[in-house]
Automatic annotation (TrEMBL):
It comes from Pelobates cultripes. GO terms for biological process: autophagosome maturation. InterPro entries: Autophagy-related_EPG5 (IPR051436), LIX1 (IPR029270). One of its GO terms (cellular component) is cytoplasm. Belongs to the LIX1 family. The lineage of its organism: Eukaryota, Metazoa, Chordata, Craniata, Vertebrata. This is Limb expression 1 homolog.
């Protein structure tokens, strides 16, 4: 950990030469520092050349604690992990978490290399009690992970996470299982979805799938959304990357908004529905 902190401090001097490394994360203008960091990457055309906006989103709430999410170019999402008494404080805290993760992503250890792939696959084998031979078989989960890493050599982990989030959502949504039943190989599925990023069209398709599930099992969306909100809250407080959980929330909320669009205003349960859609603290 000490070596990582030393490397991070050195990195700060390289990417933010105007800032004091010892003070950068206590700087009240951390929002500007995060913007400066990504604008610098845009100028260097290092990654995400067509996307340059750092987007903030405050969760609607009349009272503290306030919650703010920040989405980086490429889609990675972070939130404030401290208990914040103002929206501005939540915004600064979210920016701080995002800046730290952005800087860590610049470390050599965060880039996908042959050595990185070997270590990551071994870790996956150990954590899943799998078989090392599965790494060479794309029809297995570990083999698919190995295949995806090999096809993304040179990218950083934040870039790779964008692709991984798509497949996490497809697995959660049941789409991967449906594709396997059509006899599509994992390589074909990976090759197909690797061309796409998460956008409104993909979210709408997944929301439609959940609307169909709701027709078969009434109440399933609300139950799943409550679980997702807990996951999102726990992950935010732990300072983790939030894209997967936040996308699940958006997809489920979109499905609910379609189902209840004609009755929310007049329903006696409208307050409960707004609570579900907006999240909780």
């Amino acid at each position: 950990m000490e070596r990582n902190l030393d490397s991070l401090q050195l990195l700060v001097t390289q990417v933010l030469p105007q800032s004091d490394p010892a003070m950068v994360f206590r700087d009240l203008n951390v929002v500007a520092l995060l913007q400066e960091f990504w604008e610098g990457k845009e100028r260097r055309k290092a990654v995400f050349p067509s996307e340059s906006l750092v987007v903030y989103e405050s969760v609607p709430s009349p009272d503290p604690p306030f919650v703010c999410y920040v989405t980086l170019p490429g889609g990675s999402c972070f939130g404030n992990f401290q208990c914040c008494s103002s929206r501005a404080e939540a915004r600064r805290d979210a920016a701080k978490v995002a800046l730290i993760n952005s800087l860590f992503n610049e470390l050599p250890t965060r880039k996908i290399t042959k050595d990185f792939i070997i270590a990551s696959v071994q870790e996956a084998v150990t954590s899943t009690s799998g078989n090392a031979n599965d790494a060479d078989d794309p029809s297995t989960s570990i083999g698919a992970y190995h295949y995806m890493l090999e096809n993304n050599i040179g990218k950083t982990m934040l870039e790779f996470q964008e692709l991984m989030t798509v497949f996490q959502l497809l697995h959660w949504n049941g789409s991967l299982k449906a594709l396997r039943e059509t006899k599509c190989s994992r390589q074909e599925v990976i090759a197909y979805y690797s061309q796409y990023s998460l956008d409104e069209r993909m979210r709408s398709h997944m929301a439609l799938d959940w609307i169909m599930k709701e027709e078969e099992t009434p109440g399933v969306i609300s139950q799943e959304l409550q679980l997702v909100l807990r996951e999102l809250e726990e992950s935010r407080k732990a300072g983790r990357e939030l894209r997967f959980y936040k996308e699940k929330k958006e997809i489920l909320s979109l499905a609910l908004s379609h189902i209840y669009s004609d009755c929310i205003a007049s329903s006696p349960h409208s307050d409960h529905m707004n609570f579900i859609l907006n999240g909780y603290h």
